[in-house]
Amino acid sequence: MEYFGDPAVWLPFTFAGLMGVSILIYVVLDGFDLGVGLLFPFADDDEKDRMIAAIGPFWDANETWLVLAVGLLLVAFPAAHGAILTALYLPVAIMLIGLILRGVAFEFRVKAPIQYKALWNNLFFTGSLMTSISQGFMLGMYVMGLTWTLPHFAFAMLTAVFLTVGYSFIGATWVIHKSEGYLQVKSVEWARRGIWGLVLGIAAISMATPYVSTRIFDKWFGFPEMLFLAPLPILSAALVIWLWWMLGRMPFYNDRFSWLPFAAASGLWITAFVGMAYSFYPYVVPEKMTLYEAASAPESLFIILVGTVFVLPTIIAYTVLAYTVFRGKASELRYD
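^ that's the sequence the OP posted. Answer follows.
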């Protein structure tokens, strides 16, 4: 009990939890609007307009969670921030360029003369692809311990592809919920194809993770530790089966339940994230630096926590408000 009352223990743990939740929310929320951009080559011009309308009110709020996660990493775990950003400088730069390109293309595709609209649509797709590929690459390198070897690079490229397909899958489930008619039918087909990329990505990371270290291997396959992890693969398999069953019967007669594929897809992301968190805890830099070693001084963390108490509810309130006000099917996106 005294151990958990020590600020040098509970403060780093609290900030690690806040950072983890921020990353998870970002991956789910910005994952679907990145996925919508990735699906652009498969849609016609009218469908692209409706797909943009499906994410238009939300994408700014979604990216706020990335800013929060990186900010928490910087102020709460500066040593880890330095180690991670140093190892992943190039993919981080590519991700930022992709995010900037997406933001510019999002605005200009509507306001530019009609002859340039295709250009900005292509740049929106390119920015989405750059962001997704770089995030998947960073995930693979992180799992491999941030060391640049040829096998680790190959694995990171594999996760880059799988994460990109996974984003397109959750993007398709979001379009299913926000659209109707032919676009909804088309989105169901996109989701049916994309689900296997997500499943393969989760499987690849799951197979690689226990071999990163003997510590993680023991956590997965030692007894009784394996009992804590066992519900996750079972739940993941159930969600995949449920998703496949739903997608095979859509569009539903009662379209009120069109949100269910997106909810199930989000659940699949959550189980994968919880499995990673369980595997790598207490390390914030795999097998090199624990969150307690990387944390700022307790006095600094306490001051930051006071600020977080005010900032976090504001971000949550803004996100909830955006999703509440703009609930329902997407309508025409207008700027006049």
